[in-house]
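Hi F.,

I've been meaning to write this up properly since the lab meeting, where we talked about keeping a consistent format for the predictions we share between groups. The idea is simple: the sequence comes first, exactly as it goes in, then the C-alpha cells exactly as they come out, then a line or two of notes. No screenshots and no reformatting. I'm using this chain as the first example so we have something concrete to point to.
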Amino acid sequence: MYQSKNKTNFPDPLAPQQEKQDKKYGLQYAKAIESQWGKMSEKTSLYGTRNEVFDRNRDYANGTQDTSIYKQLLTALNPQDGDGSLLNLDFTPVPILPKFVRVVVNKILSRDPYPNLEAVDPLSSSEKNKQKQRIRNQVAIKKELEQLKAVTGGMVLDMDPDMLPDTLEEAEIFLDTNIKTDAEIAAQIGTNMTLSWNNFSDSIFRRCVNDIAAIGMAVVKRENDPNYGIKLDYVDPANFIHSYTEDPSFEDMTYAGHVKRITIEELKRMANGQLTDDQLKEVKKKATKKTSDLARNAVYDPVTNQRDYDEYMIEIMNFEFLSLEKMYFEEKENRYGNTGFFYEGYEYKEKKNSVFERTPYEMDIMCIYEGVYILGTDIIFNYGKKANVPKNIHDISRARLSYSVVATNLRRSKPKSMVDSCVGFADMLQLTHLKIQQAIAKAKPDGLIIDIEGLESVQLGSGGELQPLDLHDIYEKTGVFYYRSKNPEGGFQNPPVRTIDNHIRNINELVALYNHYLRMIRDTTGINEMMDASTPKGDTLVGVQQNAIAAGNNATYDITNASMILFKKVCQDVVKCLQILPEDSVIMSVYKNAVGEENMNVLSSFSDLPMYNFGVQVVKDMEDNDKMYLEQNIQVALAQKEIDLEDALAIRNIKDVNQAERLLVVRRKKRIQQQQEVAMQNSQMQAQQAQMAAQAASQAKMQEVQLEAQLEAQKIQLKAQAEIQVGAALHELRKEIEMIRAQATLGFKEEEKNFKEKIEILKENRKDERVEKEAVQQSKLISQRQGKRGELSGDANAFDSSMIRSIMGS
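Output, unedited:
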C-alpha cells in the first residue's frame, strides 16, 4: 500500500478511553489515514492511482473516453500534434460499452428487489411455529368452521374460514411468507418507509448498481440524523477510503471515510462554533492558495464558460473507526443477603473497605469514533464516540461502521469491474472503426479507361470530326459512345472504353475484425445476442435461447450478487437503527404516524423491536423468461379451464417463481378435482334425471293405458247407452207408429163408415128432395097444364153442389 513521504503512524489502539476521546487521538488517526491514501492530486498515491482507473472506466462506460490515443496511433506526421492525419475522421467513440452496462444495470433493476424481514430468534421462531400449526389445524377442520360460521355468524371465530386455504398443500405455500408476527410487520413497514423516504430504489440503488458495473464498487452511508431520522446517502467510490481488505463485502474494515469538497460557509455551519475565527481564516488562506494552483492547471470548458474547479472549496474527510473498549458490571450483595448484577459503565473504580461483597466483571465491546478532518491542516471537529450505534441484540459486543460497501473481484483493495476488463477490446474496436472510415475516405469513385486512338477521326454528319472530349461529353449526357472500330491501318480494334469498378480496400477484413472485437467484448462480459435481444431469430430453438440467457446470467452473476448484498446490508442497517429509536423521540412518532390508523395494532410492536433478531432476505421479481413460461402455463390452464381467473391473478401476484409454480400446480389440481366432482354430480344428476324421466314415461304410459281403458270402457258404455237409447227411441217410434197406424186404421174405418153413412143420408136426403121436387114439378106441370102457372125456370132442376161439398168435407 502507498505510503507518503511524511508517514504518520496510527495511534495506539489499546490506549485508554480518556486518551481516545481526546481530539489529538482523532487528529493522529485522521492524518494516518491521509498518509496511507495520499492526496487526490498525487497521481502516484493510492488515492490517485485508484481514482485514475475509476475515471477511465466511467468514461468508457459512458462512451466519452479520451480519443487522443486513437489520434496518436493514426497520425502520419507529428504524433505530438494531436491529429496529424491527412484525412477528416470522426473520432467520436463507438458507444458499445455503454450498451452492455445499461443491459446489466437495467436487468438488475427490472427485478425490483424489496426486503423481506423475518425474526430468527428462538422466541419468534417458536411463536411463528405455533401460529403455523394453528393454521394447519384450522385448514384441516375448515368445513366444520364454515358450518360453525353459518350457525353463529362468525362471532366466536378469530379467523374467517373463507380466508383459509382449502388444502394443507396450498397452505404450506403461504406459510413461509405470509405468517408474520406483529414485530415483523412493524419492522417490515418501518424498513420500507425508510427506503421510500430516502428514494433509495429509484436514485441511490440505481447509481450503486451502475457503479458496480462500471468501476466494480458501490458505497452507501447511513446517518442517524435527529431532524431527518434514518438517512441514506450515496457515496462516490472515488471519494471513499477504507482500511486494507480482501473481502468483497468489506466486513473486516477497521476504519472508513469519504472525502467531500464543501464551501467555507458550509464548513462553518457544520462546525457549529467548534472552529475559531483564526482557524477559519487559516483554512481560507489554504483554500485560496489551492484555488490559485488549481486555476493554473484547470481546464477551461468553452461550453459552460467555467473551469474545472470551484473557488474557495475545502476538502474535508468524514472518517470513523472501530475501537475496542471495556464495559464494566458489578455483582454485589445487599443487606438482606440478596445478590444483584449492576451496570457500571466504561469506567470502574473498585470500592475499598466495602461492607458487602462486590465482584467486578468486564466485557470487551466494540464502539465507533467519528470525526471530520480538514485535509492538509491540523483541524478536526465533530470528533467523539458515536451514539446510537445499531447492534445485534443477541451480540452487543460487535458493531459495524455506517458504510455499506460491496465490490467485485477485489484484489489488493482494488476492484476489477466489467468495464475494466473490456477497455482493451473497446480501444481496438474503436481503431477498427476509424480504419473503416479511412478505407471509405480513400475509396475512389467509379471510373473509365478510355483509349484515345479509337476516338480519333470520328465524324458525325456535316459537323466535322469530333474530339475525344466531345465524344466523352456525348457519352455522359446520352449514354451513347461513338468510336472507330478500325484503326488507320485497317485492322479492327477493341472498344476504347472500359469501366473501373469501385471497391473499398480491405473493407471485408476490417468488418470481420470489428465483429471479432465485438465478440471478444461479448465473451468478456458474458452478454450474448440472446441476452440483449440484438439478433432475435424466429427459427432459434427455445432451448438454445434459454441456454444462452442462462450463460449470460452466470457471467454477470458477480454484479447481480454484489448489488443484492449491498441492498441486504442497507436493509439490515436500517432495521437495526429502527430497534434503537427512542420511544419518546420525534422520529418514533413520525414512524407511528406514517403507519396509519388502520395499523394501530402494530404500533406497540415498535417498542418490542429490540427484543428480536431480524434476518433480511432480498426478494426479487422473477426473470423475464420465468414470467414468460409461467404466463404460458397460466394461459394453457385457463384455456383448458383448469384454473379460474381469480387463481391466475393470485399466481401472478407471487414474485417467487417456485412458489408461483407450486401454487399453479395446487390450484390446477384443486380445479381438476372440482371439475371431477362437478362431472360426477352432473352424471349423478343426469342419472337421476334419466331415472325420473323413465319413471315419468312409465307413469305416463300407464296413465295412457289407463286412460285408453277408461276411454274404451266409456266408449262401450256410451255405445251401450246409445244403443239402449236408440232401441228405446226406436221402440217408442215403432210404438208411436203402430199407435198412429192403429189410430189411422181405426180412423179410416170410422170415417169410411161415417162417409158412407153421410152418403146414404145424403142420398136419402137427395132422394127426398128429388121426390119433393118431382112432386113440385109435377104440381107445377099440372098447374101449367091447367094453365094456372107460367113456364118453369131452369133453376128448379139445378143440383145443390155446396151441399155436396159440405157433406164431403165433413
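Notes:
Residues 291-300, 306-310, 794-810 have pLDDT under 50 and may be disordered.
Residues 420-553 form one domain.

If this format works for you, I'll send the rest the same way.

G.
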